[in-house]
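Objective 1b. Sequence-to-structure analysis of 4Fe-4S ferredoxin-type domain-containing protein.
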Amino acid sequence: MAKKFSVLVNKKWCKGCGLCIAICPKKVLELDSRVKCEAARQDDCIGCRQCDNVCPDFAITVKEREENA
């Protein structure tokens, strides 16, 4: 079974720069109506953590989901 990941965004820290959206190979992220990053397609995340690494505001955390969650 493939691993599942959760992308957590701290909206208080996000300034909507879009770097995470541009770098995500699976297009998991997009900007919401307040121009803050959100994980619109959580189930598509492959856990590469590129968004986490590129975020200048440390607003993104990628975690592996528990199997029974």
